[in-house]
Write a structure and sequence with these properties.
alpha/beta, TIM Barrel, 8 strands, binds flavin-adenine dinucleotide
Length: 279
């Protein structure tokens, strides 16, 4: 009950069926879904194995119910913090199975210490041609990562970034994050053929729509479920490719905490405070 009140607007519910139900609603509004099974920083191999099995079942459900959906995985759900070899095997197992069923597999990007491992993991999936990776505009390194990923003919989902990072490696001011997002987005238009603009920030979305009149790339506009769905559906009705990221599962706390922090500009307040403390 408590979690429903706190997190219910963002999270589909505890089960695969809950995720599929929301994905159907999303599809009915001419958008595709990105389904994510909630879970991160998993330190128990039994939980990792259960997560992998759940993703295989999810892939079956997407296929059998003819849902238009990608899936999105977190490396720390697959065993990154326990055994990197096992994480790689788990990733390849899911990517191969998804490939067989015609489903696209994203890698979420988590905290900064995991970025190198996540990019290395993504590279392992590239030969299967059904994989994409998230890049965070708040990190100072991200232009260099995009340069590298462009050489690999990658599919990137650009986000602002959701974790608390040190100002040494991330822009502390939200205005600077937005400015960096804008310039990384231009880089995507100039150097990538297919990518996802994942933000609820309408100034960035309007800018992307304008840039695409010039560059004519395969752009998808993606938002998190329960934040600006009506706006997303309007973009879809206007003929744009749109995705809604739909998390489900019982490990909702950290995800909901990040969304609560972002709601109502709380993060901008925190970044102003961080700047003030630095100066
Ligand atoms: C499809 C998708 C996938 C993502 N994947 C990742 C990932 O793998 N790794 C990662 O670090 N981050 C990920 N994120 C989260 C992202 O990094 C941001 O934390 C989040 O999108 C908020 O940033 P914003 O771009 O919407 O900009 P903001 O400047 O935070 O928000 C722009 C406007 O959107 C509205 N808004 C934003 N958030 C909320 C909210 N919670 N409640 C109400 N209104 C809100 C407000 O009107 C706000 O003014 C993802 C986001 C999306 C859309």
């Amino acid at each position: 009950m408590f979690e429903k009140l706190l997190a219910g607007r963002w999270i589909a519910g505890p089960s695969i069926q809950d995720g599929i139900k929301i994905a159907k609603k999303v599809n009915a509004n001419m958008a595709s879904a990105i389904l994510n099974y909630l879970g991160e920083d998993i330190n128990d191999m039994n939980d990792v194995n259960a997560t992998v099995n759940l993703y295989l079942k999810l892939i079956d459900s997407i296929k059998s119910m003819k849902i238009n959906a990608d899936i999105s995985l977190k490396p720390t759900e697959l065993g990154l913090e326990i055994d990197k070899e096992v994480m790689k095997q788990n990733y390849v197992k899911i990517v191969k199975y998804a490939k067989k069923k015609g489903i696209f597999v994203w890698l979420d990007m988590e905290q900064a210490p995991f970025v190198d491992d996540t990019i290395a993991l993504y590279k392992i999936g590239l030969p299967y041609k059904n994989v994409g990776i998230c890049i965070q505009a708040y990190l100072r390194r991200s232009l260099s990562d995009l340069r590298y990923l462009s050489k690999l003919n990658s599919t990137v989902r650009l986000v602002k970034g959701a974790y608390s990072e040190s100002p040494k490696i991330a822009f502390p001011s939200w205005a600077d994050v937005t400015a960096n997002y804008s310039s990384l987005m231009e880089y995507l238009f100039k150097n990538f053929s297919k990518f996802t603009i994942a933000t609820h920030d309408n100034s960035l979305i309007e800018k992307a729509l304008g840039l695409n009149e010039k560059y004519k790339k395969e752009v998808t506009y993606a938002m998190l479920n329960g934040i600006r769905n009506k706006y997303a559906y309007r973009l879809a009705a206007e003929g744009n490719k749109v995705s809604i990221y739909v998390p489900f599962g019982t490990a909702w706390f950290k995800y909901a905490f990040r969304r609560l922090r972002e709601e109502g500009g709380a993060r901008r307040f925190v970044s102003i405070l961080a700047n003030f403390r630095q100066n």
